[in-house]
Model the fold of this input.
Amino acid sequence: MMSRSKLLIKMEHNATHPGFSWIVKSALALGSLLWTHQAFATLTCLQDLYGGSLICTANDVQPTSFLNLNPSQACIKGTTFTLPLQANLVSTATSKYDIGLFVREDGGIDALTGTCYNTILTPIAPQGPGCTSPSPNYSSGTGPYDNLVCGSNSRTCGDIQKTDGNVLVDVPYSGTITALCQGNSISPDGYAYLGACTSWQANSSSASTCTSITGTVATKNSKCAEKSRDLG
Done:
């Protein structure tokens, strides 16, 4: 198992700001810091793909934390960092389908707009007798994940159940993610933040053909979540 720790964030020393360091909880964002970087692409976040305004009140599938898989990694506030992360997803509903995860890369308070890393839960476990998924692996970070749509082995978007408990997802699937090392002006403890969202289909009837992140975006604007969660 890879080691995990909180990320160290450092403020550069200058005449205005004496040098000091922050231990990063690096949560999904709740604050007011907005930042853009021309090096990032656009239109890869949840609301951008939805094409309208989202309210994200359902909250059935939530990322409960991000895990830093590189314990020696540090970052300078206001610059970008690159490291392997692992998201921990949990469902409060009996079952949800075609799960999508969005992680903000260009700074900001959520993963609704801007530039995001996005992924589906893939690969999925092949269905066995009685439309069961006999071999999902929720702790690997790379699946295989639940396939809860009976009779469908052509789809590639994985599902989640309340009984799964903690479902780990590597961010990205193989390698590292590059994101802004950002603080938050309203955070009293000096922790840095990442924005993230989850999306899903509510019913199996909507989930028979999903093969990419666009298939995870529901038609109802409440079927998503944007929650603050710790890293580390």
Observations:
- Residues 7-231 form one domain.
- The chain has one domain: 7-231.
- Helices lie at 46-50.
